[in-house]
Amino acid sequence: MKHCDVIVIGGGHAGCEAAHAAARMGVKTALITLKREGIGVMSCNPAIGGLGKGHLVREIDALDGVMGRVADKAGIQFRLLNRRKGPAVQGPRAQADRKIYREEMLSETECRIGLEILEGEVIDLLMQGDRVCGVVLADGCEISADAVILTTGTFLRGVIHIGNIARAGGRLGDRPSVLLAQRLETFGLPMGRLKTGTPPRLDGRSIDWSGLEMQPGDENPVLFSFLSKSVSARQIECGITHTNSQTHDIIEKNLNRSAMYGGHIDGIGPRYCPSIEDKIVRFSEKESHQIFLEPESLSDHTIYPNGISTSLPVEVQEAYVHSIKGLERAEILQPGYAIEYDFIDPRSLRPSLELKDVQGLFLAGQINGTTGYEEAAAQGLVAGLNAAHIVRGKEAIVFGRSNSYIGVMIDDLTSRGVSEPYRMFTSRAEFRLSLRADNADQRLTKLGLDLGCIGEDRKAIFLEKMEQLDRAKSILSTTTYTPTQLNAAGIGVSQDGKRRTGLDVLAFPNVHVEDLQSLIPELCDMAPAIRVQVEYDALYATYISRQANDVDALKRDERHAIPSDFDFASIIGLSNELKQKLVGARPTSLAQAARIDGMTPAALALILARLKRGNRAIRA
Amino acid sequence: MDTIFALASAQGKAGVAVIRVSGPMALATAQSLCSGGLPARGMSLRTLRDSTGNQLDDALVLTFSAPASFTGEDVVELHLHGSVAVVSSVLRVLSDFKGLRLAEPGEFTRRAMENGRLDLSQVEGLADLIDAETDAQRRQAQRVLAGQLGDLAESWRQDLIRAASLIEATIDFADEDIPEDVTPEVRILIDRVQHDLIRETAGVVIAERIRSGFEVAIIGPPNVGKSTLLNALAGRQAAITSEYAGTTRDVIEVRMELSGLAVTFLDTAGLRETTDIIEDMGISLALDRAERADLRVFLADSKEELGVCFKGGDILVHPKADMRLDKIDSVSGITGEGLSELVDRIAAVLKDRSISAGLATRERHRIAMERAKESLEAASLFLDAGTNQYEIAAEEMRVAIRSLESLVGRVDVENLLDEIFSSFCLGK
């Protein structure tokens, strides 16, 4: 029987990142996908990044993942969101060329040493007790493995709806894997049902662009990868148009024919990405909704009209599209549809994304109730790194809420579960001011070096940057200046007699490194990127040190791991209600236990007492 | 690591009250209270003064240096005269020190454990104590929130969620259809809460609203003599008694001192099925108050007959001892039989829960409001600075909301998202 260390099932965004991560860690990895061309396909809007999501891409990149570099190559319009707000909440975003993205991802995957692409359908898992030890392909061939990562998106009971027509399927055009789903069912995992929608795709040649507002990308594009130097694809503009009262009338009259409003769908959809039907019903007072017309590729004419996802019948889609300015004669290339699917309650996962009850089996991506390429890829990365650690018999790698958005997401998923498709927002990160897109490398590349998942190129660039940063910080913190000196240099400070370092002064709003140049001439040689970094760090320094206690407390709790056979029920002094919640949630650390609703400091102390004592039965 | 403090001794008019301070700043704090000169380890008799030199109390000050202390950290114990006024003024002065905060229930124990200072059988013994402390705080908080402060806290919660969600919406949904400048509405909301906080922390109001002491509810079927018992306990005619079942409809409160503890007895409507709307309202009120009380005295023949949950520490006594042959575990408000035994049992249970719920909670709320006030003030300033400091304003809002958590409840990011999605049409 053929053997691989790690098998990744699925070649979407989670699958790619998982396979690359495992291979970078040096274990023999196979990526099994239905067809090679399916690798790196963007099935929804071809855009990467945004608020929170851009942070995730930077973090993936900081660990030498592939998404950032591929997106930079495929980017046809880059915009840094929140440019006018503080750096902590700025998120890079790019419109990507679907075709370039897929080709670049495929070529990265083909070139990766230690990673093999296998075309085929996995129909079953090989089991040894409650441990997964390989897979069975549709042609009967079996492959053994130490760890299997399942990244099969919406394949679990996926149903596609267009109006009142429903049919089984994952993405439009893909077949659902029934047998594998049946195997998963035997594990008895808790599941839920979600839905999501897409808009009709339009032919750009049939759109009248002449009267539409156009939105260009940023003049100085901010890229995703710490390694990328410049954009490589031709840059384009997106169009903006709006729905009108006629559009709303058409949709209102046909609401009962929408799959979502006609009662054909019970799954829960994301509130941040409602269908056009939803928008018109819930916000009936709004006379118009904005639509972004986003080109999907430089090499074909498909336009993604962002803002009008729908599950209305095709003829209604045509009617309402044609009522919109610029789209009067637009041709629909592919109708919009809604898809409903099962997800597995992510509370059944450990923070490594391995199932608590099925050893060696990892889940990543949409199957865990998330939405978005970036969320999927980040989970893939976590699963890939951890699968490699399992192969080596090493401890799980746990990302924390205090070091990354990845950690925030994993903790949200595994300790709180999901009630709608989970998407990252910056507001989910309580340490948002320190978890910035600009410092993702400083937060994570060091960790990656320790893990061994960072390539030589990145290592060199990173170490050089850190050296420059250290030098800059030491220049700015060794000497102190009196208010008189500072005022003479043109920096307004009150005459309080307090001596300040360069870093102290940079914490003031509107003070920049160049203002200090006359006082500290060495600063003239500082590279622009380093200047920016130093300024950002100084800007938030007060807040970051204020949060240090919270971070320490959290880390202390994270360090107290709770073994999987821990007996919550026998802890004396815990209320029955809490016991039930703990037994249900099975937190894997004291930090996770702390996030359970209704948890008290006292109860945590009791759990800790038991942990310290070891998991022996307590005297009655 | 924060330095934490709390009242470590029993509530009520004990002779001595002990406040424990633990953490890196413990000794420095004590030095500052005692005008210096304390040994790192030892016992000294000192006059404690606040920062302006006002005398707080003459106290015995015990200093322990790490690691040989209860928590394994530097610890100071202030043994004060056990008056409520002295204790609360010292707690207040401590809370004004930067880097000091009130300990959570169980936090001293937790630190002791982290530092390997507790043998684990000791921890188990402490479990009940911590639990009682948490429980007492929770009950006290519930009581506060059911009162007038509760309505206020609820309006703060709504205002704060709305204000924070507006700021977050402009941050997380920047490229969507959201007003660019939400400052005017946010400012109105913040100002409103700020105004309330200033009034509440001014002192007088909150002191009246947050009661200290225990609540003991007397419950039972109609006409078993609950009101008569209350009157006997109070030594005066506090509740109207009559031979008619269902006489007591409102909840009648009588405050008294029981073995040095402040106790409020609640006389409640008799529990029975009734068609009288007013009596029915009285019964549901009775059930509600009984649920929140620290202790319930079941004046009944059995625990089960009332349909009220019998919790740990609750007391069952049989009614009308004067009419019984078997007087065991029974009481009579008319003859006074069994009365002193009942008082002893109640006092024993309450002393067991010898934690300073009322006082500590009051102080906790005051500190929470003070901290929230500061953060809201800062948030306001950053809002003025324009959108490029919204994320810092949002951070200050988050700190404010967290400070007020004990009053307004936990506010999760989900609460903010709920508000955002119900107010704005998002999803381009």
UniProtKB/TrEMBL annotation, chain A:
NAD(+) binds at residues 269-283. The keyword RNA-binding does not apply. One of its GO terms (molecular function) is flavin adenine dinucleotide binding. GO terms for cellular component: cytosol. Residues 538-609 form the tRNA uridine 5-carboxymethylaminomethyl modification enzyme C-terminal subdomain domain. SMART domains: GIDA_assoc_3 (SM01228). InterPro entries: FAD/NAD-bd_sf, GIDA_C_N, MnmG, MnmG-rel, MnmG-rel_CS, MnmG_C, MnmG_C_subdom, MnmG_C_subdom_sf. Keywords: Cytoplasm, FAD, Flavoprotein, NAD, tRNA processing. GO terms for biological process: tRNA methylation; tRNA wobble uridine modification. Gene3D superfamilies: FAD/NAD(P)-binding domain, GidA associated domain, C-terminal subdomain, tRNA uridine 5-carboxymethylaminomethyl modification enzyme MnmG/GidA. Its cofactor is FAD. FAD binds at residues 10-15, 122, 177, 366. Pfam families: GIDA, GIDA_C_1st, SAM_GIDA_C. The keyword NAD applies. NCBIfam families: mnmG_gidA. NAD-binding protein involved in the addition of a carboxymethylaminomethyl (cmnm) group at the wobble position (U34) of certain tRNAs, forming tRNA-cmnm(5)s(2)U34. Belongs to the MnmG family. Homodimer. Heterotetramer of two MnmE and two MnmG subunits. PANTHER family: GLUCOSE INHIBITED DIVISION PROTEIN A, PROTEIN MTO1 HOMOLOG, MITOCHONDRIAL. This is tRNA uridine 5-carboxymethylaminomethyl modification enzyme MnmG. The gene is mnmG.
UniProtKB/TrEMBL annotation, chain B:
Mg(2+) binds at residues 227, 248. Keywords: Cytoplasm, GTP-binding, Hydrolase, Magnesium, Metal-binding, Nucleotide-binding, Potassium, tRNA processing. Residues 3-117 form the GTP-binding protein TrmE N-terminal domain. Its cofactor is K(+). GO terms for cellular component: cytoplasm. One of its GO terms (biological process) is tRNA wobble uridine modification. CDD domains: trmE, TrmE_N. The keyword Translocase does not apply. The keyword ATP-binding does not apply. Binds 1 potassium ion per subunit. (6S)-5-formyl-5,6,7,8-tetrahydrofolate binds at residues 20, 77, 117, 428. One of its GO terms (molecular function) is metal ion binding. GTP binds at residues 223-228, 242-248, 267-270. Residues 120-425 form the MnmE helical domain. Coiled coil: none annotated. Its EC number is 3.6.-.-. Pfam families: MMR_HSR1, MnmE_helical, TrmE_N. It is found in: Cytoplasm. Residues 215-305 form the G domain. HAMAP family: GTPase_MnmE. Exhibits a very high intrinsic GTPase hydrolysis rate. Involved in the addition of a carboxymethylaminomethyl (cmnm) group at the wobble position (U34) of certain tRNAs, forming tRNA-cmnm(5)s(2)U34. PANTHER family: TRNA MODIFICATION GTPASE GTPBP3 (PTHR42714), TRNA MODIFICATION GTPASE GTPBP3, MITOCHONDRIAL (PTHR42714:SF2). Belongs to the TRAFAC class TrmE-Era-EngA-EngB-Septin-like GTPase superfamily. TrmE GTPase family. This is tRNA modification GTPase MnmE. It comes from Sedimentitalea nanhaiensis. The lineage of its organism: Bacteria, Pseudomonadati, Pseudomonadota, Alphaproteobacteria, Rhodobacterales.
